[in-house]
Structure formats: C-alpha cells, structure tokens
Amino acid sequence: MNLKELAASLNLSPTTVSRALNGYPEVRAETRARVLEAAEAANYRPNSRARRLAMGRSMAIGHVISLSEEAQMINPIFADFLAGAGEVYAREGYDLVLSIVPQDQEAAAYRQLAASGSVDGLMIQAPRCQEPRLPLLKELGLPFIVHGRTDTASDHPWLDIANRSAFKQATNFLLDLGHRRIALVNGLEQFDYAARRRRGYLEALEARGIAPDPAIMRGAEMTESYGYASAAEFLDSDDPPTAFLASSILPAIGIRRAAGERGLRLGRDVSVIAHDDVLSYLYNDGDGPAFTATRSPIRKAGQRCAELLIAQIGAPGGAPVQELWQVELTVGRTTGPCPAT
Amino acid sequence: MNLKELAASLNLSPTTVSRALNGYPEVRAETRARVLEAAEAANYRPNSRARRLAMGRSMAIGHVISLSEEAQMINPIFADFLAGAGEVYAREGYDLVLSIVPQDQEAAAYRQLAASGSVDGLMIQAPRCQEPRLPLLKELGLPFIVHGRTDTASDHPWLDIANRSAFKQATNFLLDLGHRRIALVNGLEQFDYAARRRRGYLEALEARGIAPDPAIMRGAEMTESYGYASAAEFLDSDDPPTAFLASSILPAIGIRRAAGERGLRLGRDVSVIAHDDVLSYLYNDGDGPAFTATRSPIRKAGQRCAELLIAQIGAPGGAPVQELWQVELTVGRTTGPCPAT
DNA sequence: TTGAAAGCGGTACCAC
DNA sequence: GTGGTACCGCTTTCAA
After folding, report:
1. I want to staple B143 with a disulfide (CB 3.0 to 4.6 A). Which of B121, B202, B213, B222 is the partner?
2. A212, A210, A223: which is closest to A184 by C-alpha?
3. B21 CB below 7 A from strand C atoms
C-alpha cells in the first residue's frame, strides 16, 4: 500500500493524505482523522526511500568504526555508547548506519557516506590526540560531533569528560592514602583520553614532588591480559608499586589476578583503582567488578551526543556545542592505605 | 555534482553515463573510460537516496538489538558478530542499519524496518528457545537469517554452532579427568544456545550415571559478578564442586576470583572450563583469559551469516541454508585432574 | 482546505 | 552503442 493507493481509497489526493499524515496544520480535523484511521487500518508506512529522496535528507546518522591491528576488537565502550545514541535516534526517527571498516579505509568510508548522501550527520568516537579525521570532517561539510577531544583547539562540537582532572583526583586519592609508588596502567596513549589521563596522573605526582617512574607506567589496548602482564612485571620488580591506577576495568581485573597470585590482598597489600570512561569508580571488590558498571554513564554520553548532533542537523550553523563533564569519584573497598613496608 | 550534470559535461546522456558507471556491457570501451575518468575527477558518487528509490532496493541490512531488564548491556559477542558481518556488508556495498530498542518495542522496530522498506534483509541474533520473532519475520516477508537455532523445527535459514555436543564434550573431558562434581555456570536458559549447552552437560553426566545436582547449576546473564557469586556459593557449600563449566569467559573470571579468595589453585584444586560461543576454548591461565579470544570465531560467524543473507537477497526463494558448525576444543593449563580428597 | 503537477536523482525500458 | 523518457513514491510549491 502506497500513498497514491491510500489516497485513492479515501477519495483524496496524495497531497492531502501526505499533509494529514505529516501533521500539517491546514488539514481539516475530520479529514485528518479519516486519513489517520485508514492509514492505521492499512498498516501504511511511507516508503522511506521515496521519502528520503523527496526530502533531500537521509534521516540517518553514520558511525564509522575502524578496526586496526592494534585495536582489533570492538571496544565494549563503543557498544554502550551506541546503545545510548541508538535510543535517541529511534526516538527522533533517525536510523543508525554503522560502517565497520579496516583502518586504512576509514577516510574512504567517511567520504562515501558523505558523497552518496547516505547520512545527515556523523558521530565520531575515540579521537586521537592529532586526529586525522578532523580536517576530513570539516571538508565533508556534514554535521558531526566528537565524543572526546583532541590536542588541537578547534571549534567543532564535542562532548568529553574531564579525564585529566579525574586522574589527578584519583592519583591524589591514592597519595592521600599514603601511597608513593603508584603504577599507571593506561590505554593507548595516542588516544586523547589516555594522554589526558596520563597528564592528570603526572600532575598529581609532581605537585607532591614525586618523580614519575616510566618503569611503572604503561599504555596499551585495555585488555585483561595487558593488565595482568603489566602488574606481574611491576610486582616482581625490585621496587614494586603499592597501588595501581588502571584506565579501565579490564586491565584492573588482570592486575587483581597478578596480585592474587602473589598472595597480595587488595585494599591491604596493594590498592587498585579503575577508571571507567565517563564516570570513574573505585573498584569495589565487595560485589565484584561489574562489567555493566560503565553502562549507564556511557549510555548517557551517547544519548547526549545524539541529541546535540540532531539539534545541529536541524539548525545548522549555530555555535558549536562543547560540553565537558566532570567526573564523580566513588570509593570502593579494594582501595586501602599504603602498607607499611 | 549529479548524474545529469556529469552527463552534460561529457556531452553524453545520463543513460549512457549510468550504464558506464554500473558496468553495463553495451558501452563502448572508450566512452566508458571517459566517463570513469570524469566521474573520478569530479569525485562523483551517485546519490544513494535516488539510487535506492529507482532500484527499489535499500542496499541495507537491518540488525535489531533489544535491551531488556535482564540483559541490558550490549553483549560483547554481538559486537564481534557485527564486526564480521560489517566487513562483508562493506565489501558487498550494503549498509548496516542498527536499531537499538527497548525489548517491548522489538516487534515494532522490525515492522517499521520492513514496512518502510529501509532494509533488504534482517539479521537475527541470540534466538530464544521459543523465539517470538520467528512468526513475525515470516509475516514480514523479508529475507533473514538467524545466528543460532530455536526449539521449533522450521525451514528458515540459520547458522549455529553445535552447543550441545560442545558441552557434552567439555563435560566428558572433565569427567575423564576424574571430576564427579561439576558445576554448570550457564547463560540465561531461555536463550536457545544456553538450553542446548545445558542439555549437553546433562547428557554427559547421565551417560556416566551421575545424577545432576540443581544446587550447582545456574543460568543467568553472563557477567563476572555472576560467576563470582555462583562460585562463592558453590565452593562454600557442604559439597563443593571440583570443576566448573562456564558458558563464557566473563563468569569464568569471577569463578577464578572466588576460587582464589579461598586459596584454591586452578588446575590443581579446581578446574575451570569456559566456552566462548563459536569455538570453545579451555581457559588458558598461562597467558590469561584473552577477552579477544572469541573475536576471530565470532567474526567468522558474522561474516558467513552476512554472506548467506546477501546471497538470499540476491536470489530469493532458494532452499534455506542451515549450517551447523562443530566446535573445536582447546585445552588450557587451568584444567587439571580431580584433586584426591 | 484541497488538488495538480513539478521535482528529488537515479535506473531501465524501448527506440533509433 | 547511445539517447529519450517513463517510472520509483514521496514532498512541496502553486493555484484553485
């Protein structure tokens, strides 16, 4: 059943039916009621292909996820972010077009989406410090928003959490507990969020006059085995750390395993703090590290980014929105004072 | 730059240009070369909206992911599957349209995708035993394929791994090591894959005349804390298990934690086997549980499902493909003989 | 308040 | 081998 047929069955013109369906005001109430009822009865849905062509809009947002050698798996963070954004898209009538491509085809994927007009806007995740997509995106001329920041000051829209201050805070927290040797198990530091976290960590140390030791600082893809290997190495060294600051729950689990194997108890012999992207939380051993812990905050970020992007699509040319979210620290039981050694 | 303009700039008709671009044979080689060159120079990309309308096809596949109260997070398995499917879609020129909806809007989401013609096919993940989407999908009349099976024999296309026999094999493996009390830490058993795994487990026990004990069998969403809580409870009981069979790596990590806290060493005091969806692997403690372990096999399944679905879209009405993949067991170091108690 | 008709930007049939 | 043209199904001016 298409518009023409529906109109014919009602003895109305396609024009009127279209107007009635799309909520135009100039339709008589009674006519609209008839149309709505008939459409419902016939289970009519406007053909989205035709609609998109006629409107000159795709009613879709593009997400490009590139898989590289270094980070081959889809980050669970991405999935939670998608979930949040997807909620908003569904509510606003937008489709989510997901392009999953090898990293060397990333630029081509963006170009394709833009040039073919498949999407009305682009959502960018996990920017690097020197984000190569930035000039490309500006060239494409599509609305976009970045979840995260970059090194370069730019007036593009973004939403980010205060990674630096969160890590500074967390480091200070450990320092206040008496720790002096704190290991950093970070994410890949070419990503902006990881670089900022490192800065926060370094700043806190410096403020107390503690020289950072590269021997207990790492940055890599955040897997459990990475956390395990790092912690094992650090703990077996001559001067092991008494605390760990991890960039995500996954390496934190690995750290815990390495500590456990060495007979160390968390919160007594060694402290572990994990930061989970948008809101941080201190690793609560009581109810276990919930893999769902990040869900709610990351989803919120996804939602908000989607809202901002859609607003931008609706009213282009406005001042770019740049939101920085402060992090809320939550203390868990695996954090304890520095053991007296 | 659109087709008409491109054609005008070449002194050709849109028809010819379209044919040249789409590889139709009746174009003179020299003409085609000219067209291709000009298109390249102008960075011309056919407008996908117009193309889709004219062709009557969307060149897109729909994935609907519903979030329920029970399973609110996006399963990492889904992400890896998506990655595999996405690869194939990109290669074949299809878009991936991802709908993320609350569970009570799942059916509406499928209906919307189908009625509006936004997609040419649907990909179904994680079917339940009595899958309510099945009748709906048949009603919609769109090509689809299910990753997994259902209780009801049906002639729809699916691709699944042999969950029952994998778990039977794994259980037998533990039995051969001398274990007699084996805990099952399963996924949500309304999902078909979990139900089949349970069956395999039960069959293996029965074949050796061992009565299953519901006290050491669980089914829930596969998180680390679920594994931890289950193992803690089992291990603290009067008659603790000597081995665990886990449905995924996440609960297995929790199990390990609970065991560790009780001074039990894996592979000596207690055995843990984790099954990771498509290919199983026995939890290798040596290099840590890699969260990326499932990546390759799940991706393969995603790729294959995408290929089958696209083939079906291209040539509808063929015999439905139903593929059952056998599982390959890999032995890891955390599996050991039953401790003599 | 309603309708006729001209697009939107391609594809594909039919004629030359 | 190439071109004219009628679609695809909707939105949106413009006229009534």
Report:
1. B121
2. A212
3. yes
